[in-house]
Amino acid sequence: MAATVAIYGVGFCSFSDNLSTKKLIKRRGNGSIIGVRSVCSRREVGTAVRCSSSSKAVAPLGSEGDGRGCMIEEEEEEEGGGDVMRFKMSDFKVLDRVSIGLGGRADELVFEAIVKDSNSPLHNIKVVLRKLVSTQAKRRGTRAIEVLKKLARRKLMYHSYSMQVYGYISSPTSGRGSFTLVHGYHGSFSLRHWLQQSDWLPTLEATLALDEESVRRVGDDTVGGPAVSRQLRITRILMRDLLIGVNYLHSHGLAHTELRLENVHISPVDRHIKVGILGNAADFYEDGPNSSTLDNNMDRRQMMIAFDMRCVGFMMAKMVLRELMDPLIFLKFKSFLMKGNDPSCLREFLLQILSRNSPSGNVGLQILDRNWGAGWNLLSLLLATKPSKRISCLDALRHPFLCGPRWRVAPSMDIIRWGLGSTAVRITEEYIYKQPQRNRLSYFIELMEMLNAHSRPKNWLELLPGKWRLLYCTGRQIGLTLRQPSARVLIGDVYLTINRASQLNTSISFTSDIGFTVMNGRDWPHDKSGITGNLEVNSLFRLTSGRRLYLKEEKTSEKLSFGQPNNQDSLAQKLSAKKWRKLVPYKEFPSSLPVAKLVSADIEVTMSIGDNLNQNDVTPSSIVQEIRVQVPPEMFDLSRLVCGTYVDSRLLVLRGVNGSALLFTRSMC
């Protein structure tokens, strides 16, 4: 017979022995205590066990308070299935405080308790009592028990990656019709609370006890090191554990649907991530996998897996980029994706909103930039705009970002292209263009052009429209150090905006936007605030297919040299090496490559200056002349652009009539 239970309590607090604790006590009108609220910050280590009691029939649950009932059907447990235990309130010693990491919803009351029944396999084990008040909350509790029966056939995986649900306390005979879920206690902090601690990194390292077994799971057998390496190791361990747990659900036809840092706990006993009590887990197949609506079920399965993977992407972003723990910054981050922007451009967007003087010291940016920008690639795949483009758990576990240096990973061609582009962008950000850097940049750009996956004009018409920021030009660079310009002009960002003139033809409009500042005085002042201006160049292009020819020059005894080696010869020599022979789809250096040919019309140049020029020796013509000296000629005279050789969702390479390459990145401003 079910025991009558009446629990009146308020949860969401944590233990503290050596810190001050503030208690808030709620009382009835007659003075009796309803509940206790306590808040502190010390972490408590929990205990986890495996439940293996004998199978018992489960009695029905009812809710009399709202006239609607929750039912757990009686069924015979299959061999190897999960055992659901029915408890009485007298089986527990309820504690007067609750850990802060166990905080639930508004329709839940959370308690910590010790099992005092000597006949129970959980004797003296700390558990969590989650009293479910509303009808929806009771439905979540019933669902958690249903999922337990479905998943616990593989007990080892269930106990390793799910928060263990032991059973329930039900009192249908009471006036309130309470239903209390009994589940495992896995530490006092959720993953969110772990990351919010000032000393979270050494504390997590100590909790996970990074021994040989744990580092073997990520292919990294090193310990210690700089903060970037340590945080990358922890991120790999947490992400791999999380993905294994989510894949365990997906392989059983379930989607979690509520993956958040608040719902994930780290057990200090087995050092695994627990993905919650699964009260909102949803089935992929509404009418079973063998129903007649198989196509609809497959679409539903794909959408639900994609939703979970997007949630995993948000969790990874917060784990790596600590600034995203700020709700305002995370709102900007999420709104960027909600507007339909391509996640591959996240780096360009986040560099603008993340402060370079942040408390984390941009450790997260360094982590994502490592290994040829592999972290940004994984993040973009997890957060892909189209659900069909999002990466699966198994593919994410094989991604180079989550594989340590001890594991040999064969990267895909997409990751190779991504790595080449990311490395080229990082080199341009150093702003030290000595000859070795210039040669390396030219080499990477040539490789990107050879591996271009979008050579057809229709691909270019889809990817070209947008705003692009100029990063680098392989042509001649003229600085300000060794000359005295007639006008002190400081060049800002240079953008190229591309729009389709009509959807019916291949005409596209190019707009070059050059921002500049005119300094006052004869010398360069420390204060660079001057008169701002803008130079705009417009032209209309027609895009057709074409080929870029590589002319082989005859070797002569006397060869003119201007300090730049022949990039084609050096590239051909490197492509013949064993490292690139398996990756590049050419046995020898090709004589030509497919490109998007650009045929220009007339150009129109306009310049605007924010204020009147007070200097007699500075005229608009001298400003234009100085801009032409500092800016690549192709950005001033757009008719010099003859073809596009590489394009993807984030990078663009255009070639000028003199052979110089212009590297652009898609701008989000």
Automatic annotation (TrEMBL):
Where the record annotates domain Protein kinase, the positions are 92-402
- Which key words tag this protein in UniProt? Plastid, Transit peptide
- Please provide, in alphabetical order, the Gene Ontology terms of the cellular component aspect for this entry: plastid
Q: Which domain of life is it from?
A: Eukaryota
Q: Where in the cell is it found?
A: Plastid
What's the name of the protein? Protein kinase domain-containing protein
SMART domains, alphabetized: S_TKc
Family membership noted in the UniProt record: Belongs to the PAP/fibrillin family.
User: Could you cite one Gene Ontology molecular function of this protein?
Assistant: protein kinase activity
